[in-house]
Known about the structure:
single chain, mainly beta, 7-stranded mixed β-sheet, 2 helices, 38% strand
Amino acid sequence: MEAQEILELETGTKEPIALKPATVDIKDVNVKEVGEKRHKKIVCLVKHPDRNEVIEISSIKYEKNGKLNVSGLFVNLDEDEKIRKGSPLAILMSALASKTPKEMEGKQIGTTEDERGYLCFKVY
């Protein structure tokens, strides 16, 4: 579509289709750099039962001190250059019985919605 054609488009009337929480299959695990400081974040490509193509999920909803938190799967390392114990990524790996992020591939996990309506992994 050319730039001039885009300038002539009207707003559509169809609501976007939001995926409902469901159990997903983790097909692939990647590392992406995000933000100006290029922080490393784990992004999982998952197969949702209501969609033909894979989608990306890179956050988790988990319980800490009796409160539900949502956090991105940022790679936080300890002084031994290992994934920091108790970090959201470590919590997800533990829930999936995975020693490394790569071992999460092929596993199934439930999802839920965050406060903005996006899917995230449910670990509580």
